[in-house]
Amino acid sequence: MMIFAKKYNKYKSKNLLTICSFSIITSFLLLLMSINMTTIIIYNVVYYVFIKIVYSITEVNLFDYSNKQPFDKEWNVEYFIFREIFLNIGRMLGYAILLIIGFTHNLEYLKIFFLCMTIALIIIIRMSKNIVTREQDIKR
After folding, report:
1. Is 60 exposed, middle or buried (0-12, 13-18, 19+ CB in 10 A)?
2. Which of 53, 61, 75, 96 has CB atoms 3.0–4.6 Å from 131's, for a disulfide?
3. pLDDT band at 8 (very low <50, low <70, confident <90, very high)
4. Where are the alpha helices (DSSP H) in the chain?
5. What are the CA-CA distances from residue 28 to residues 20, 47, 116 (Å)?
6. Radius of gyration over alpha carbons of the chain, in Å?
7. Which residues, in sequence order, are CB contacts of 121 under 8 Å at separation 6+?
């Protein structure tokens, strides 16, 4: 992450988000084709590396976005409170679903869960790209 922080360029983040999403989706498709130790390890490594990059870019964009109207003075605390509430609700739901999948030992449920996670990541990446695009349009 230190290398990423030194090399990060805000104007190239859109391309970096595209590369991250493509890598995560590719590893997910590999996992869907065949669930074995190799594909699980590949998925976990790719997911861990690229999700850190995606979350770092998203956090930077969200903090920049929170300094703009109407959040800069009036709604800043509420913005972060609601964001954290929904993030924590999502985490709790994810853990509960994984617990249910673990008790049932059904790989089809695990595939469905991975599909939902990948769709959520694509949505996060697209939203982050939209924030980057809006900021670039405003600066022009």
Report:
1. middle
2. 61
3. low
4. 2-7, 13-33, 37-66, 76-104, 107-139
5. 12, 9, 11
6. 17
7. 21, 24, 51, 54
Which tokens go with 16? Answer: 């970096």
Whether the Cβ atoms of residue 34 and residue 134 lie closer than 8 Å to each other: no
Residue 47: per-residue pLDDT:
85
Count other C-beta atoms under 10 Å from residue 3's C-beta.
7
Q: What pLDDT does 13 receive? A: 74
Is residue 140 pLDDT above 60, yes or no? no
Tokens read off for 115: 């599909």
Residues 71, 77: contact at Cβ < 8 Å? no
Angle at 130 between CA 14 and CA 132, to 5 degrees: 50
